Amino acid sequence: MPIEPGFFRIPADPNAPPRLLGSRCRSCQEVFYPRRRICARCLTRDTEDLELSTRGSLYTYTYVHFPLFNSRRADHGGYGVGQVDLPEGPRVQAVLSGGPGDFRVGMEMVIELETLRENEAGQDVVVYRFRPAKATQATSAASAKVEPS
Ligand SMILES: [Zn+2]
Questions:
Q1: Residue 148 lies in a domain
Q2: Is 57 a domain residue?
Q3: What is the pLDDT along the chain (149 residues), one digit of tens a residue?
Q4: How many domains does the chain have?
Q5: Phi then psi for 25, rounded to 5 degrees?
Q6: pTM of the complete model
Q7: How far, in Å, is the centroid of ligand 1 from the Cα of 93?
Q8: Within-domain flag for 147
Q9: Are 39 and 46 in contact (CB under 8 A)?
């Protein structure tokens, strides 16, 4: 189950990516994430629900060298955070899946689910995150550090 309702939908197909739940203004066509009842651009109260694309372009990112709060991945020692531009327009901030050398501005990212923990009912509590759509060849080169002589 989602950590908080209303932000994304988990498809019935376990191999399918989650879908972010956005809104589109019927008047000016601006798209928002998360959902809005009133358009922030033209203030019309006429928005419709829209499921956003599962892929986008990495606008910017950083790598936090500290374990992710509340995560099972505490042993990883850090995590990426980035902003992903979706084709519909919204720029979504999310945790990134991968190591510090795995990201490049402008690369294609795909959304996926991460299980944070189990709740009292034994259900997995999940969040969404983005990972690079393709493994980069540059990763191995970037991790092969050149020591100063
Ligand atoms: Zn509008």
A1: no
A2: yes
A3: 898 889 999 999 988 999 999 999 999 999 999 999 999 999 999 999 999 999 999 999 999 987 766 666 555 678 899 999 999 999 999 999 998 899 999 999 999 999 888 999 999 999 999 999 986 544 444 444 455 55
A4: 1
A5: -75, 125
A6: 0.82
A7: 22
A8: no
A9: yes
Range of the domain at 14: 8-134
Cα(46) to ligand 1 centroid in Å equals: 8
Residue 87 falls in which region: left (phi positive, over 0), alpha (psi -120 to 50) or beta: alpha
**How far apart are the CA of 47 and the centre of ligand 1, in A?**
8
Rounded to the nearest angstrom, the distance between the alpha carbon of 36 and the centre of ligand 1 is 10
The tokens for 127 are 């969040």
Residue 1 resides in a domain:
no
Task: Name the helix (H) or strand (E) containing 125.
Answer: strand 124-132
